Amino acid sequence: MNDNQLLRYSRQILLPQIDVAGQQRLLAAQVLIIGAGGLGSPVAMYLAAAGVGSLTIYDDDVVDLSNLQRQIAHHTPDIGMDKTISSQQTLNKLNPDVQVRAVKQRLAGELLDAEVKTADVVVDCSDNFATRFAINKACVTHQTPLVSGAAIRFEGQVAVFTPGHNDSPCYNCLYQSDGEELVNCATNGVIAPITGIIGSIQALETLKLIMGIGTPLTGKLLLIDGLSMEINTLRLKKNPACPSCGSVGT
Length: 250
Prior knowledge:
alpha/beta, Rossmann fold, eight-stranded mixed sheet, globular, ThiF/MoeB/HesA, nucleotidyltransferase activity, ubiquitin-like modifier activating enzyme activity
């Protein structure tokens, strides 16, 4: 690290759990973020601010006026711009030392497999079941840690899956692939801060995984109700008959 980096990250380097060694791990890390919307915005911004060395962001959408209520990586002049490019510009201003690769594409198939294989952590900020199950399958295949989040109305949830380690369940243990499609913000609404809360927790869990500190939410589902401000944590068990991970880590 150079002097500017030591100063930029000094407040977290002061933490004994992080120190210089932890910051070096962040600088060397590669994180794949899928989705550049309400969750992907705070995830990407906090990871960039913390000094994660390389961020790859996938999203196939463009910035719409209705996004600006909660998708804080985008601004009014960005309307009509690819979300990935808008995010990249915001992150470059926030921390020019971070390498940001922005791809306007729905990540799937062999490309998804290749991206997950090279990532240290995958952060799922997508908004549909098909993508979530595909991401989960790729993470199980390559035993890549997955940080999953969702937010709708006043509610949100976060879970961490570490396939092949510590008898971790996977996303498919929690949700069945033939279940109903996810509700979405366009039809059900969402309060802006809940996306910030969930995205921030996803970013925190990602940093913990990279640095190997604390206790990640592996095997747990964190549930937040913003209206009542109740926070609950449910323990998740690995499903031996899971079609995705039943034969992994056993």
